[in-house]
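[job 0412] stage=complex_fold ligand=adenosine-5'-diphosphate status=START
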Amino acid sequence: MSAQPDLNTPIQYIKGIGPKRADALSTAGILTVNDILHYYPRRYLDRTTVKSIRDIKKNDEATIVGTIEVCGERKTRKRKLYQAVLSDGTGLITLVWFNGVKYIKNIIQKGDRIAIHGKVEFYNGLQIIHPEYDKLDTDADPINTGTIIPLYPLSAELNKARIDHRSLRRIIKTLADQIQYCTDYLDEEIIRVKNLCSLKNALQNIHFPESLEDLKEAIHRLKFDEHFFLQLLLSLRHRSYQKLGTNPLSKSGPKVKKILDDLAFELTYSQKKVLKEICHDMAKPIPMNRLLQGDVGSGKTIVTILAAVTAVANGVQAAVMAPTEILAHQHYESFKQQLNKVHITCALLVGKQKAAERKQILEAIKNGKVDILIGTHALIQKEVEFKKLGFVVVDEQHRFGVLQRGDLTKKGENPHLLAMTATPIPRTMAITYHGDMDLSIIDEMPKNRMPVVTKVVKESRLKNVYKFMKEEVADGRQCMVVYPLVEETEKSDLAAATEGFENLNNIFLEIKVGLIHGRMKKDEKDDIMDAYAKNEIHILVSTTVIEVGIDIPNASVMLIEHAERFGLTQLHQLRGRVGRGSAKSYCILVERNITDTSRKRLAIMEKTNDGFVIADEDLKMRGPGKFFSTEQSGFFKYKIADMVTDGPIIRNARQAAQELTKTDPKLENHPLMKERLLKDYAQYLDTVTIS
Ligand code: ADP
Ligand code: MG
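[job 0412] stage=complex_fold status=DONE, emitting structure tokens
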């Protein structure tokens, strides 16, 4: 390549990288010079992170650099294994592989200099089983030379193309030195005010830091950039909604008033406040894009019903999408109960309906006979056509991909959107995850509620618990017993619940015990729920399918089996199924596999009923991936940023991004920034117009 490469130069034109290596790099997402400069090391070796073997103890999580002294395959009675002894001059440690012996014996060989990382155990001396390992240059010695050595994520594809740490460093070094990437896309003003280092320094120091201080600055800058671009995107998206036109739904009408007058309770102050915010948005000729957040039991349903009725009063249809069939069903019942009073028609659309029934519903939606359609993601199927969809509700929206949310709104002409969630998402997460939406919060429970008394019990105490449940049922109350996902399959989930059901049937002889699970037919589920709602079933055993939504005010005891297997947020959701009436309610958490962590986590449930506190703790303990419990919730894959620990950086980045979109909404004065946005964030730009 004769001309100087620039950031957008395809990687295969770089010296030392042919088509084969370029192929391998592309599997790691590296297509251009810019991509490889942003291929950050996953770990660094230096004096502060590398330990001497002399100083390590059993159970340490240690990083060690040393040379392989001896190694070889061994056979025990049961299986083959590969062993290697590593020396760092202060001691010896054994490395053991039980898996992939054939592969590893070609990689780890006598005389190799490697860095390893893993949990130290003791078995005839120090050892690590299946350590993470990185082969190093023969003279790499971070301890004695005081250097910092970057280690890159290396996949099997990269290994196969003979791309290792050394070659990556060499390629990146050459590029870092010659590339004119030093023109920063951030304003000098932002860099100064937010106390950032330059992009050039950041990209150099993330790969070749001379001091830990340099490295810290580089990490800070690159984290900032990632949050900044995401916030920029959200801010642009928010602005672009503002430009769309839609039907203003400003009439309130007598039907809303009739429902309100007929309610058995008065709305809480919070419910009135959010309803006002929602109606205010709907009355504008700009589509609403609002998230309604409220803890379980705070009364979101009635707010949505009133908003939907308002929409219908203005001559449009409404759609309500729920994440599970049971929840869709429950919504349908709640809506129907109110809508019947005012002669508004609603229908339920879920996956497993009879063809004839389905056809009839689809027709009624299309010709406008149905005012409000409630259902699961069946609503976004192609065949579903509305006459005039003007208002969309998405419940527990984090369970749907951002795209699915869009798929439903596309069925109308920029309908007003209300998303709902009972997962009290911590603030920093809310602004990264829902940063393009306006937020309404119900932060108050209906007055008649008493906090649910929560108790963690061991298996041995279950007899007393069952006795207590009998007493509650004798008092006219009802109970729920929930079994967790045993393994990742619904089948074993079901097995546990079925077994539990049979067992409980033998314990509660004079009491009617019912079973409900996700595999049942809709009719069966309906019958069971019906019977439970009428108090013909006193104890309902279920799999986690009832996690969200079910509303039985007479239920006073929630018993959760294997509570240690649930996330705290999930436990909180389940707990929210009781304490909905005026009776004192109880949540019993049965802890079966007791560990220090499970004890600590479950203790939080005993201490607080506050969903925000619980969500915060859950997020801290499990990280965002597990917190949301699904892959799609990833929405946005960070390279270096961290939604949980970067709070201050996120706020700074958000502020800078919002300021910038105010003064330069089309990024006309920021061509480099615009270029990066269009290149790296194209897939998220669906609704955004900047060019
Ligand atoms: P969630 O926010 O979890 O969806 P729901 O809307 O299901 O909560 O409401 C929980 C229960 O509280 C329902 O039985 C509902 O009828 C009742 N409820 C809602 N608002 C009030 C209120 N202001 N006062 C008393 N009960 C209420
Ligand atoms: Mg609800």
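The longest strand covers residues 61-75.
[job 0412] exit 0
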